[in-house]
# Entry
Amino acid sequence: MPLPHDVGAAIAAYLQHGRPRSDRRRLFLLAVAPYSGFKGAAGIQTVARSAMRRAGIVGPGRRDSHIFRHSLATDLLRSGTTLTEIGQLLRHEQQDRTRI
# Structure
């Protein structure tokens, strides 16, 4: 997927000025030592929940990183992307998962 210019600029700034020094090849590292990558989805879920809480996002439904995947899939579907293509992008093994 192509990155919007502002997202690419933010990632470049992070790499140049914000990312802790580490020999790890992962892009995003934990902000506290030891500076390693996230050990799984739980770390990403925590970051997403915290960001949504700080942004004041409340209401029913999931408020974690899956909302970003669901929003992307919905936008792609509305723009004419097929369910098969969306499933491949999201790496779903079964098309029933994509239909959700």
About this structure: The chain has five helices and no strands.
